[in-house]
């Protein structure tokens, strides 16, 4: 079979001592930058690009890929321990992961995240190997109308992210949408809500927003009441998930992997939805939805799996088409070109060792990550015993460096401060930041694709229902809306939450 | 007044000797090369290839820093106000000239804010279409576009992007007006072209050559005066009678105004060495382009290019009535 011989070639390439070493360096670096709040994979890969010139193309790409998915592992660590998500995906992990940590189950949450990520990474890598060419064809069927409908579905479902009032969740989503509007209108070039500051011409920085409304707000809250914090540090709890915990994570992990793999292949930003979508699904079908937002294992396992699966399958458009699905992939394209490998539809045929080597290295890298991360959990959890008045200035410093390093832009730091304050106020008002973040991430995509679909359809709005994929997605959206608005359902919802409060 | 003269003399002496020192010792530390676009893009790739070679020649690291945003004007603005000590330079493309018209409120004066180091490369552009677009060659495409102008769509990578400018020229040459679909960068635009969601695009060979080779899109013509080595069968736009559509994405290196002449000379000399390096030519050939002739790696050549390009694009942009602010 072709696949077996191809995978054989891949493992032979990735398994060479040099490539194993660079894979290890990559995943260690990735874990580290993932753990440091604010410093993202994009900035790190950009900084490391020059170093990779000296390496073989395969080695350098294996290392860069390792940094990317390693950062996905590491990113959940800060989200869980200090409520500081560095990327949109770990924002969801923070919701329940941080609550688990506050209950003294930080170790459990970290282990669940790592195990979920490993499982999802392995399965998704296999999918990439077997189905890449086929999935590419599906991904290309997604035009502007389909993306619009997908994003709409995501936004409507986002209401489930909140565990408070629907009205507040809706308000937060809309606020997120509005914040997402800041920046240059790509269709006319008109700057919107930038107050003449050219540094905001490309919009507000996601990392600044996330670090602000989640992390800084949480620091402010902790400083206000030191008692909460003492509870956290004295009750470290068990490091490992109990049998019941493991049982609770299996189904969400499987669903998350499936969902993440599917969304990851869409080059137009599908992967962004993966962890949000998984959280929504888990909460919907859970027998104990009241646990969500208060430390649910499923709320960590599902999104973490989805996120990591999406990270692996987002390599598909790059490997089969030469098209980067996100900024990190764009950097990989740059790295390939500098190495003399121009990405395109021919890479798999012309450079089989490179193509299959990268795929095999992803699995090896995931294995390394789990071996690396499980023993580290004890160490990370010990971080929580560091006195808070020592810890928080360090967190602030790393956040500032990280946020600044994304665009070398001081206005992003002002944004962190502003959003930190806003996050604190919202917390006082019992409004949750997760729907806001989703609105912020999806808003620009929603608008861009809506307008593009209208341009392509020459102003005919029926384009959304005459295209089958788009129509199906819109149908799902309507179903979700009906379920949410059915009076008895919302009554039950209210009961569930009043009990839990 | 003797004291005055001595002081002046001493001062002049210091300046002279520091100048001499400069010429001898420059560069004494790493040089930052600002690229006003995101890492991984075509301009970034050109910059990194050139920076690596220049590092070897100068004996100091040339570090690429990406300051993306606002069509390259943020990065250019940053270099315009950077310290003019020879340790900050800018590598920018044709957008340096077009931004002068596209942005009516630039933070810097394009012609007055920079010293010139030299031209780096001119990347050809290709007119491409989705793989199942009916016409087989450029001549039939011209007829086809004229007949179907009200149903065809043309993608570009955003207002003011090279693909946008080239698309404008194409439509002006054919005297048609197609529905223009802007994207956020070349990647998404290419994705939709591959998926057949849009019909046409005009983009740099850096992005299109592999797709044309793979048969995933159709290559119709090149915008350079001569055919390309990598696509000997692809006609030039001039061959198909498309007047005034010749365009290439030229890249130049700039320094903040007032950079010591010795530093500019050293940078320019280094650039010329690099441009003559066959390994750079080989790397650029992969992208479907070639280094500018070493004789163009001079301040005069870049200045002339910038001035003529500003003059050329001003009426095109004004006619189309598109501004990016």
Automatic annotation (TrEMBL), chain A:
User: What are the coiled-coil residue ranges?
Assistant: none
Domain DUF112 as annotated: residue spans: 20-438
Q: Which residues cross the membrane?
A: 20-49, 61-82, 109-132, 169-187, 199-220, 257-279, 315-342, 354-380, 386-404, 464-486
**Superkingdom of this entry's organism?**
Bacteria
**Alphabetical UniProt keywords:** Membrane, Transmembrane, Transmembrane helix
* Entry-linked InterPro entries: DUF112_TM
What name appears for this protein in its UniProt entry?
A: TctA family transporter
Origin species, per record, is Loktanella fryxellensis
UniProtKB/TrEMBL annotation, chain B:
Q: Which UniProt keywords apply?
A: Receptor, Signal
Record bears the keyword Signal: yes
- Which residues, if any, are the signal sequence? 1-23
InterPro entries in the record: BUG, Bug_dom1
- Protein family membership: Belongs to the UPF0065 (bug) family.
Identify this protein by name: Tripartite-type tricarboxylate transporter, receptor component TctC
- The organism is Loktanella fryxellensis
Top-level taxonomy:
Bacteria, Pseudomonadati, Pseudomonadota, Alphaproteobacteria, Rhodobacterales
